[in-house]
Amino acid sequence: MPEKALDLFGPLSSIKGIGPSKNDILIENGINNIYDLLNYFPRKYLDRSTITPIANIKNNSQANLVGKIEAAGLVKGRKRQFFKAILADKSGMVTLTWFNGAKYLSKSIKIGDHLAVSGKVEFYNKLQIIHPEYDRLNDEDDPLNSGIITPLYPISGTLRKSRMDSLFFRKSIRNTYSELGEISDFFGIQFRKKYNIISQNDALRQIHFPDSNELLQKAINRLKFNEHFFFQLLMLSRRALNKKLPSKSLKKTGIQTKMIYNNINFNLTNAQKHSIKEINDDLSKPYAMNRLLQGDVGSGKTIIAILAASIAVSNNCQVAIMAPTEILANQHYKSFRKLADHAQMSCAQLIGGMPAGDRKKLLSGIENGKVNIVVGTHALIQNDIIFNSLGLVIVDEQHRFGVNQRSLLVQKGLNPHLLMMTATPIPRTLAITYHGDMDLSIIDELPKDRIPIVTKTVNKERLDNIYSFMVDEIKSGRQCIIVYPLVEESEKSDLTAAIEMHDYLSQNIFKEMKVGLLHGRLSKDDKDAIMTDFSNNKINILISTTVIEVGIDVPNATVMLIEHAERFGLTQLHQLRGRVGRGNKKSYCILVQRNFTESSKKRLQIMESTNDGFIISDEDLKLRGPGEFFGIKQSGFLNFKIANIVTDGALINKARDAANKLLNNDINTLPSRNKRVYNELINLYGEKLENAIT
To answer: Half-sphere exposure of residue 389, counting CA atoms within 13 Å on the CB side?
Structure first.
């Protein structure tokens, strides 16, 4: 070991081979110090088992190759130049072709270069690889010659332009380790034994220079554990801080709650009973509830929300319910109003575009406390809305609102209790990752009288038969819904498609029927009129854009036909399907597939095989990944470099258990109990933790 070891958080310039210009480019790419460099993990590895001899490559297969460039140069095409190179190993040769960045590549790739190449093998007159990924190797880096496992790093943008490739990172990290002492650990020996993880020092060395695949897997496991652990620690810290926010204890269960129970004409499921008990327990405590209620389409979240609202009103508190769309807000208002009238609670609706006089009267009623329950859209957060005694905030489809919007509504009371709801079932490990700062109630049980929806995938040739079936359903007194998505991204919007098909179907196929059209650009009054007519069976067939994904509850609707079903994700298809089957009649969801791919076929087969939203969301997560699953709301939410919330379920549970025991519900004493862990938490998530307590 050197006389003076490098400082783990010291500058990159202290590493041999990193001068000022390289230092600046590394900082530009988020690598600010030695610690960041060691935490810049390889994207993949080369070893003997992953490399294909060139002679063995096959058309339409993915291949990892290692060889030398025997020839390279620009080739003049009909429209522009492209770059070609010949890669050779002991078994044969293959052509590499790049159409983009030809000039740059002609300067970067030279005859004699030793490269690792990855890409899809395709046949164009001969076998070749178009736009392969490549990494520069030394002779000693070749696993075939050396037997070592060679790391390949993520290289793009300014890194690639500056020839700071995998070879550069391997050299820089090797130089770092030649002068770096042992890296201290966040966790003690007993902790590591308990959770079966190797030391931080060994993990970082093995991730960059693995001695074996077994040790590499242990390194990956430890570094994944780190990321899950500190994120869970953040979420649990925020949760612990939330539980210190003083709020009014809503212990009283008054006449309002009893009257609602007396006026519902069905039995609550066990899952519903369990959820309302959890909510009731939370409301009775002297700190603010922060709970997420998640359940499948039709599982009965609304009645839970109404019962929670009645408890708040029984304790002389007001309730605000915020929904993402006017359609859904209107649906909630009708549901709440129906039972509120029986339970001696005043319920009002606040949305944009109200007549000035009506709005003024309503705002006065909210301010003086005469209005108990207010249902609305984001219009609820406007500055001129003043509550008299806001005690409970309910946010539906909470993922459609930003953190700031929810916060603005909560700020209209003195730390009111918060109940958030979602009809998107979320796998448990995903829920505790994204929503670990909230308590979780899950309704994973549908009402016992609910008849499973029959789901079938058809091609366009069978549409005439489907239309005939829909006519028969309508003649039997039922109703149908047809949904149109985007038809051609560059040519038609979903609105245009819906309008055109409404005209065609109403004039040709369903001439004897009343056909309605619903889309997002209609005025509120027009939407309300159409929805009222559909609810009252004055419209037989409703043609709509995806605006109906949430908010339509018509028990008489028994057929949902979804056009271009292959364009939807599983979760969205399931949400749409949930618009039918809400009554006691057998219902059908018809998925019209017009573009046939392996991935779309798989998605639609999953839809046919199950009505369980939790299974569907799990599959959707595997197919689309968490980013698309949650949308842009969570952009930048996770600092994960190596962890995977889709596949790391067991590790997430282990990390959460460890974080929970270490935190012990008290973030304030953590610095004195484990300063290293606390400092790393602040280093990673200081701002997010601070936001939770401001």
So the answer is: 14
